[in-house]
Amino acid sequence: MPTYNRSHLKQLESEAIYIMREVAAQFERPVLLFSGGKDSIVMTHLAHKAFYPGKIPFPLMHIDTGHNFQETLDFRDRMIERIGARLIVRHVQDSIDQGRVQEETGPTASRNALQTVTLLDGLAEFKFEAAMGGARRDEEKARAKERFFSHRDRFGQWDPKNQRPELWGLYNGRKQMGESFRVFPISNWTEMDIWQYIRMENIEIPSLYFSHRRDVIERDGALLAATEVVQPLPGEAIENRLVRFRTIGDMTCTGAVMSDASSLDDIIYEVASARVTERGGRSDDKRSEAAMEDRKRHGYF
């Protein structure tokens, strides 16, 4: 069974907590972006530790595509009630109804890309100056380019060539009117770090991360959950398989993996031997070579 270095995890924890406290000190209206996935759950846990015994001094915001797993939504509501945090939810369906975005059509339609507009509208509505996200540099090549403090222009857009230096643990949060920041306190963490920290801290996570039987459809190498928004195309079949999810997002683009990992130790062993990244089952990343970078340029977190 893979072991973990407790001091290494504590160093990562201290770094993330330091950055969160810097955000709280430098910005009047920060927010923590919450998806219900393991990274945002760890972020929430870190925020709780950073400001304990007080409550988390900024709200959490969830952008609900309307195609989230019910297990994720149920977990979110239980967690918020338990820690006493303030939760803001904004819905992609409202953006569609208002004509702000146009819903995709066709057999592979997804709302994942549409949430960018809903996110930017939500940030503008509450005048949030800094939005903290759980992105990590090991996830995807576009995210590897991010600084801890990622400057965004007044349209919420990201320019990878216009990043500020971050030397000696000093972070520059100065901005012009209308500009903002995305902040990524766990940038230096890996997927393995996340799972080992979850085990070390005994953090509750959604049941989707553990092995369970589920009806799935194999499509373009990904196992998508068969639901009302994901139906089989001609030549495809619904199969009941033993699976789990390495990453959780919109049902239309989040693929499961075949697995019998029923405990955190099992998951850690599985991650240690994996040869495919956790986003390898995300069909939204496969739409183009620069899919993630394109979305980030337009305001995706």
Strand content: 15-25%
Strand order of the largest sheet: 3-2-1-4-6-5
- The helix-and-strand class reads alpha/beta
What is the 3D shape? Answer: globular
Following the backbone from N to C, one meets helices and strands in this order, namely HEHEHEHHEEEHEEEEHH
The averaged pLDDT comes out at 87
Unreliable spans: none
Q: The biggest beta sheet, please?
A: 6 strands, mixed
Topology at a glance:
Elements: H1 6-26, E1 30-33, H2 38-51, E2 60-64, H3 70-83, E3 87-91, H4 92-97, H5 115-125, E4 130-132, E5 149-152, E6 180-183, H6 191-201, E7 212-219, E8 222-225, E9 238-244, E10 255-258, H7 264-273, H8 291-297
Parallel strand pairs: 1-2, 1-4, 2-3, 4-6
Antiparallel strand pairs: 5-6, 7-8, 7-9, 8-10, 9-10
Helix pairs in contact: 1-2, 6-7
Key features?
301 residues, six-stranded mixed beta sheet
Task: Walk me through the structure.
With 301 residues, this protein is an alpha/beta fold. It has 8 helices and 10 strands. The strands form 2 sheets. Strands 3-2-1-4-6-5 form a 6-stranded mixed beta sheet, sandwiched between helices. Strand 2, helix 3 and strand 3 form a beta-alpha-beta unit. The protein starts with 5 loop residues before the first helix and ends with a helix.
